[in-house]
Structures are given as structure tokens and as C-alpha cells.
Batch of 2 targets.
Target 1
Amino acid sequence: MNIILLGPPGAGKGTQARRLVEARGMTQLSTGDMLREARTSGTEMGQRVAEVMDRGELVTDDIVIGLIEEKLEADPDGSFIFDGFPRTLAQADALGDLLDRHGTPLHCVIEMQVDDAALVARITARSTCASCGEVYNDLTRPIPDDGKCVVCGGTEFIRRADDNEESLKTRLLAYYKQTSPLIGYYYAKGALKSVDGLGEIDAVAAAIEEALG
Ligand code: AMP
């Protein structure tokens, strides 16, 4: 089974993808995580990617399509949750071609709906465990009092360089201009399911499970 989690920055795609990994043994493919890894590689490409990401703009299609292609080639029988990919119509077409080539269908696209005010509040309060990537939020899911990650016990937490109001404005604009057309694209293909992404993590997870059938 392959599914796409679609939604603006801060909608909870990463959090819900991790839940699905646990519940269903699927593999999370987050292009954001892959790019954050690439930026620490010290290569010239990594440096260029870092600048684009920090501004909140989208990295070029060929780079992210190449990253996804590599992962699919490495695990042709995998069951994937695409998190933060595709983000443009060109990426959506490329993913369709890649899945066709591997003879594996797209089960559905889950659109996570969250209003803009909630996104800003969520993102500016967000931090992640440096070891395992578990997501915390100062307001709704604070780091435990003992300072240890509930998943891995890690004690270092980081705030993303692009989780500030300035980059967020650009990221939201990129979402509405370049990514939101995918809602109509997948609706027309009969693949779209929309869930309310505003509730508690467990409630959203339950809504996603129901949508997956
Ligand atoms: P995310 O972790 O999904 O919020 O992604 C963080 C940043 O990585 C985005 O703001 C973009 O700069 C870049 N990025 C992640 N996925 C993509 C994608 N599919 N296409 C282009 N840029 C991406």
C-alpha cells in the first residue's frame, strides 16, 4: 500500500506518518528529512539546498524526484507513506510514473486540513528530538519534565532553522501556489480523502485509519 500525506507545513504530516509506521509497518519517505540530511553532508549541493530551505522555498523538482526514485529502487516491494512529497504537479506526475514503473498502485491521498492561524502557532512552538525525530510542541505536547524523549530517551532537542514566522510565510505561500493544486489533481483521480487535522493526535490518527479503510 502506498499513501500520500498532503497538507500545509505544520499540518502534522510527519507526526501522523510516524504513527502509521508504528501501526502498519510502512516506510516513511519524508523529502524534508532527506534534504535536512543532505544539507549536513558538506557538499555544494547540500549548501545550495540549505539556503533554499531556510528561505522557505521549494527545492527543485529534479532533486527531490531523484531522492524518491532512489528509495523506491532500493525497496521495490515496499509500502510507503509519502510525507511532504509530491509538492508540485511535476512531482505528482513523476511519482505516478515511478509507481507505474514499479507496478505498485497509489492507495490514496490523505489531505490534512488545518487553518493557517493554527499552523503558525504550531510551527513556532515546535521542536524535535535530535536522535529520533519525535515531534514536540511547547503548547500541546511539551518535552517531558525529566528532559528525556518519550520514544528514545534522547536529551537533545532542536528547533528547525525554517520554523520561524518569516520562513513560514514563504512556506505557506509555496503551499498555496505550488502544492494545493494537487488537491484537485488527486480528487480528479478519485484518490483524495480529506481529514480534519486540527484535533488531538490520536483523533487525527483515528480519522486517517478510517479514511484508509
Ligand atoms: P518539510 O520538512 O516537509 O516541511 O520540508 C522542509 C523544506 O524542505 C521545505 O520547506 C522545502 O524547502 C524542502 N522540501 C521538502 N520536500 C520538498 C519537495 N517535495 N519539493 C521541494 N522542496 C521540498
Note: The chain has a mean pLDDT of 94.
Target 2
Amino acid sequence: MTTGRIVVVEDDPSVAELVTLYLRNAGFIVEHAPTGARARELLDELRPALVVLDLGLPDTDGIALLRELRAKADTPVVALTARADDAQRIAGLDAGMDDYVTKPFNPRELVSRVRAILRRAAGMPGGGRVLEIGNLRVDPARHEVLVAGRAVTLRAKEFELLEAFCRQPGIVLTRDKLLEDVWGFAFPGETRTVDVHVKQLRDKLAGADARIETVWGVGYRLAAP
Ligand code: CA
């Protein structure tokens, strides 16, 4: 059974071969890009369902490539990160990767993370009723946000974060809870990702009646008018 097309961006031939083998066995169509340049070509050409992206590439900064991709599309990205490189992992989260595995990794774990992300991505449209708070309107089915009738473009994670707030207006949500709900897995102590995304969301929602308030030492709350 074919479950979608995946582009694997990885310069290490043995890692690329292993990842490709496991993903193919799991039913995916896999294309391999050994360089950032080839990745750019393939991503434009193929519009894959998901990208596995090694952040350490010979010709391109992996984080820069991730940002480029995010500027164009919400294609889910699972990053392959170097062991013990916290800075790289945090930069990847801020740039919009959906999940990561740290080298060396078990290819079975990578496959299960890929599947989980595609399940979440598939579940996103049709997610239920329209949420309206003052002049803020969030339509999960159409993946659409309006502020006073004006369309606001949000990235996938920003949208999910806003949805989490709108489903529980007035309730304080901790950073850990938001990480778990929106990113689907825990990053102990890496809650700065939440702060970065909340900041982006606040900027984009300027003019909305509902505001995301900081509750010092705890987390955030959507304050409704
Ligand atoms: Ca590499």
C-alpha cells in the first residue's frame, strides 16, 4: 500500500540508504536528496507529504533550508539532528520542524514518528466547529483565521496553538501542556519554543479582541473580551 511520498534529505549514504529502506518497507514512496541544492529541486517538483531533513548538510545550513521550506509550505518535517547539539535542535523547533530524532537513531522509531505526524496532519482539516471569540474567528475545517473579517495567515503550529487557546478561553495553559498538545511530544525544559510561537501569534493577531496573556511563572491564557 502506498501511503505517500517522502523526500529524505541526507548526505550520509549509509543513513540515507537505511532510512529509505525502512520507509519503503512501510509503504512510502521515497526520493533521496544528498544535498541542499537537490532537496530544493525535489521539494519544488514533488510536493511531498513529508520531509525527513538532516540538519547537517555539506552545502546548505539545514535550519536555513527548513526556513525556506516553511516560507512556502506547511509540509511536515522530521529533522535528523546531531547528538548533543541542543542549539541545533532548538533552532529547528523555532524554524518549524514538527519532530526530530537524534543520531544515531533506530529507523523503526523514525518510521513511527513519521506515521504519527502524517496522522496528525491528516486529522487537521475537518477538526470541528468554528470557534468565535469577539472579532476572532477560527475555522478548523477550513484552516482559516479571521480578525475583524481580515484573513490572517498562520503556520501549522501557530494555528494549532491558537486552536488550543480558543478551545479553552480564560483557562491558564502551562507551557508543558501546550508543548504536549500542539507538538505532541515532550521537550523537557525546552518550553522556549512555546514562547517563540506565542510571540509570533500575538504579532499576527494584532487587532483581535481576544489576547494571549502571560501568566507569570505558569503559562498563558486567552483573555476574552
Ligand atoms: Ca549530515
Note: The chain has a mean pLDDT of 88.
